[in-house]
Each structure stands twice: as C-alpha cells, then as structure tokens.
Amino acid sequence: MYLSKGLVKFFLVIFSLTQFWGLSLLFPKKLDSANLTNVSDSLSNNRLSFRGELEGAHAAATAVITLDASPEDARNTSSGSASLMGNESLQVGAGNTASTVKTIESSTRVVLAAGITDAVSDAALVVATSSAVHTVTFTPVSTIASGAFRVLIPSSTEANNDGYPDKDGFDFSTTAPTVSCLGGGSNISFTGVSGTASTSAVQVSTTWYHSFECRYNGTGASPAAVTMYIGTPSGGKLINPSPASTTRFPGQADSYTFRARHAYGIAQSYANVDETLGTIGVVEAVRVTATVSPTLTFQISGRAASSVNCGQSQPSTVTTTYNTVPFGTSVTTTAFADAGQQLVVSTNAAGGYSVTASESAQLTAWNVTATPTIPDATCQATPCTTTTPQTWTSTSYKGFGYTLEDVNGDAVEDTKEYANGYRPFGLTAVQVMRANPAGPVDSDIAYVCYRVVVSGTQQSGDYENYVIYIATATF
C-alpha cells in the first residue's frame, strides 16, 4: 500500500512538531524575570510625620496652639499631639516660619517657644515633618551587562514634592535626595555613573512611585549584595508620611510597598528584568515623659583635726562639725588659730545658685563685762572689709575673720580665695559661693576657713556667735 505525497508531508510535520514540543519540555527557555533576594529598606527614622489642622483662628504672636481633634481636610489625618515631640520644629500655617515646640500640654494644646509671625485662620495647616535616609539592600540574581538598579518608593498622587507630609506616600521634599550605590561584586563599577532621583516618575497600575536609580559599568552583576542609599543625614531626605487614616488603631504601623528592580542597559532602554516587592513600616514615636522637680542641696560638714584648709593646718585639738567650730583653748595672743568647714552645693536650676554668709554678732562672751567681744578682723595696715579681702599674716592685728578655698571648680570668685587674703563676717549677707558659669551644678565644693587671734587684754571667758549661710537657686 502506498501513501500519497500529501499524506506523507502531513505526518512529517506532525512528527517535527512533536519532537520540538518534547524538547521544549526537556529544555525550557530561561524566563526573563526573577526575584531579587534579601530585599529590605531600613529607615534612619521610621516615625510618622505630623499633619493636622488648627482649631479656630490664631492671632499673630500667639504661642499657645490648639489642634483640631477632627480635621476637616481628609489629607490632615493627625488629630492629636501624640505624634509630636518637644523641641521639634512645628509650622503653623503655610506662610509662617516654623517655631520650636516648647511644651505639649494636652492632646490638642501645644506651647511654642516663640509666637507665630502671622495670623492664621481656622483649619490652617499644622505640620511637623519627619524625614529619613533609606538604606535599601538586595542581592541580584541575573547577569546583566552595564545595567541599572532601581528602587521605587510610593508617592502621593498629588503635591508629592511640596515639602509637606502626605498621608498616602513619601514626599520628595523641595530638596532632591542624592542616590548612591555600593557592592554588586568586583566585576561592576558605580564609579563615574551618577545615581538619579525622580519625583513620581513611575506609575505601576494605579500607584505612583518616586524612582531612584544607580546605573553601573561592567560585564554584569554577580549575585553579590547591593546597597542603595537614598538621601544623606545632612542633605535631602524623603519625608515620611502622616498617618494614613484617622480610624487606624493607634500604634499600628502604616505599611507601604516599595519595588526593587534590576534592569537592562541603555541599548534596551533600561527595560526591567527582575523585580521584588518589599514593605516599609512607619509608626508614631513613643513619647516618654518624666518630671524632674527643681532641686537644691546645700550641705555643711566638718573637717578633721590636723586637716589642711586654705593652706593652713587645723589644730590637732580641734575637729569641726556641721554646726560647730570649737576653737577652745587653741585661741592665743601670739599665733593664729585656724579651722575649717566644707560647703557643698548641687542644683538643677538653669540659673545656678548663690551662697551668702553673715554673722549674728561679733564673737561675744556673755559673762564678761569689760571687753565682752573679740573684734571682727581688720587684717593689716590696709584694712579688709566684708567684700574686700586683704593679707593677714601678722598676729599684731587681732580679731576674727575667714577666707575661702575653691576645691573642685569655680565655685568661689578668685579675689575671695585665700591667696588674696582674709575678711570679716558682717551683719549683712555677702556672697561666698556661686555657679560659674551660671547653670546646673553637681557638687560644687568649697572650704570656708576661720581664723582668730586675740590681744593680751582680751578677758577670759567663753565667746561665741553664729555664722548664717543661705543657699539660693535661680530657676
């Protein structure tokens, strides 16, 4: 039996197609698209931005701002102060200069360090931007000669580069972020190929994205990790979104999907080859509050026998305490008797502190009638006063006085330290210690050093007075 030529050709075609399909199943063609691996985007700051409205009109110079708990504009979705922080910049009204947040008094009441410059109307925009550097990492899986890496970050569908936060994407800001890439293996180079950044440059389905691209030179990217930096700490950065919805659960992150791509080179118009999706989460910051009460501590303590205070040795028979300086019988007509106490001050006051000293009276013996007092010191030929110390090295000049020693800093004026002499106490309080420079201090220490010598005609008896110290902090 013989087959016709037409029938033979038909069977040959069927046989050929069968062989082709079979080989195709055994050796499938490599797909053009694959997933990049180890894709992530780390934000230097993943805190949501604040975008709210004023409750009522505010006059120029107003420093107390009232926020609307139910914003009228759907884009203004920050309904309270929970996502604000002290000392950050807050702009009230589109034309006003931003001011610093001084105090957050309640969920709708904020106090600024300086009043707003211009009056603003009800429902005016209130903005505190939160920006971040994006560090995107991924590992390519395809070998593409002189190709490009692209990262697409979701943007708003409108006003996506006005410098204000958006509730539906990242704002490009008015300063374009710089783009740079590292890695990718030794057979590619980013040198001489500048990274680019574009506002809402790519639309995928109904979503718009900012495009960030690093092109490279070389024979192809081996499966080595690539890092793309979008923005710099001191330069342009993407502005984080404001909360996406007022109905969202507080503390729940808003998620945004970004795209990491590996593309062909210029000959193929940088057509996309590989792509992987990743997720960015932004959430309110946790504001931790604490109240530190104003504090001032002032302590007087004694000095041990034979201790050295203000360059002089305390008698071996004299130990002072916090409230006594018992010279006892160490007082003579031919030698100085020296004894000291320690003064310590700590305060958290912004203006620092001051310590003053005065005496209740001259050293007085209540059982003596002829000469009942030891005079206040006059020092030497050039008399000292309560405010001006002078040298006192000769026992020919009698009386009771004191000097100071700064122990750990600058708590005593240089002219009042023992190197410049002694002076008497007076009935009027005189400053003996202070914070220099003015501000909080932790344990400023000074020695106050008492000195007494009497004349040969000083009647015997028990002499005493009181020295009064007052510490005052300036808050």
In a few lines, what is going on in this structure?
Helices cover 5% and strands 35% of the residues.
Task: Walk me through this protein's architecture.
By secondary structure, the protein is mainly beta. It has 1 helix and 30 strands. The chain has one helix spanning 5-26, and strands spanning 37-43, 50-53, 64-66, 89-92, 99-104, 109-112, 125-128, 131-132, 134-139, 148-154, 179-183, 188-189, 196-204, 207-215, 217-218, 226-230, 238-239, 254-263, 272-282, 296-302, 308-309, 312-313, 337-347, 353-359, 363-364, 373-374, 399-406, 430-434, 441-453, 467-473. The model is unreliable at 1-32 (pLDDT under 50).
Share in β-strands: 35-45%
**Poorly predicted ranges (pLDDT <50, ≥5 residues)?**
1-32
- Tally of helical runs: 1
- How much is the radius of gyration in Å? 41 Å
Sheet bearing the most strands, described? 6 strands, antiparallel
How many domains make up the 3D coordinates? Answer: 3
What is the molecular shape?
elongated
Lateral strand order in the biggest sheet: 2-7-4-5-6-3
Q: How far apart, in Å, are the first and last alpha carbons?
A: 119 Å
What are the main properties of this structure?
6-stranded antiparallel sheet; Immunoglobulin-like; mainly beta; 475 residues; 1 helix; single chain; 5-stranded antiparallel sheet; 3 domains
